[in-house]
Specification:
4-stranded antiparallel β-sheet; 60% helix; 3 domains; 7 helices
């Protein structure tokens, strides 16, 4: 087969496929011009199809973008609403915190006032720990025990006027309950407290103290556990402290910052 015949056969075999694939009906091209025209027609048809596919794809993308933008807008709107609600809640919480702090401060002040009043009512009392207790002891018998103790162990010859003397707490089989003694005259209380020195000299395990409130007893216990405090004592129901640096603090209350005062004394 000659070269020209071979080219003619190849052209006749390839042209129909181009015509079919492009969707353009053309007679079998035999010249370069016809082939060029065929290629242009095929490219035009493909370009048209690509344009159609591109428009279709872009339309689909636009619709998805619209849905996404709509959802994003809704999300942003909900976020704005939530942000406003959060700001409102924070504002309300801040106001509540302020109210709580104010009420707490007022409650603390009222508790301190009540405790001070209670302590004032106890100013004529003394507590005695270590005196033997009789079984089924009455208040009259308790008062006799106290009077005998004042005279014998404290060496007080004067008549101590006692309003009432009684045991504190529930009876215990293996221990003696403390005695609360309310005095008529405050001068008698000073005499009794001065007599504590004789108890130490005689080695008696009997202890006399002022009648402090529960809150003040807790404060005294906490102060004694402070490593920077050497001694804690009371005078006229006021709590006093001796620091390790020989600093004396008088009238210590629950609001007193003992460590800060001791530090200030060190710097001075």
């Amino acid at each position: 087969m000659s070269r020209e015949e071979t080219e003619e056969v190849e052209g006749s075999e390839s042209s129909p496929s181009l015509a079919v694939s492009s969707g353009v009906a053309h007679p079998n091209p035999s010249t370069p011009g016809e082939i060029a025209q065929l290629l242009q027609d095929v490219l035009a048809k493909l370009s048209e199809r690509f344009d159609h596919m591109e428009r279709k794809l872009l339309n689909a993308i636009d619709k998805r973008l619209e849905r996404f933008e709509s959802r994003l807008y809704d999300a942003e709107r909900r976020a704005d609403v939530l942000e406003k609600e959060i700001k409102q809640v924070r504002k309300e919480n801040a106001e509540k915190d302020t109210t709580i702090r104010t009420l707490s401060r007022q409650m603390r002040e009222q508790c301190c006032e009540l405790d001070d009043k209670e302590q004032y009512q106890r100013r004529d009392n003394v507590r005695i720990v270590g005196l033997p207790e009789k079984k089924n002891e009455t208040t009259d018998e308790c008062e006799k025990v106290v009077r005998a103790f004042f005279k014998k162990d404290l060496g007080i010859d004067r008549n101590i006027e006692i309003s009432i003397a009684h045991r504190i707490g529930k009876p215990q089989n293996d221990s003696h309950r403390p005695i609360l003694c309310r005095l008529v005259k405050r001068q008698d209380k000073a005499v009794i407290l001065r007599g504590r020195k004789q108890l130490r000299e005689k080695g008696l395990k009997v202890f006399i103290s002022e009648d402090m409130t529960v809150a003040n007893q807790r404060l005294i216990r906490d102060l004694k556990q402070n490593e920077r405090v050497v001694r804690v004592w009371t005078h006229n129901c006021k709590i006093n402290v001796l620091g390790a640096n020989d600093k004396r603090l008088f009238n210590v209350t629950r609001d007193t910052d003992v460590n800060a005062l001791l530090d200030r004394h060190n710097r001075a």
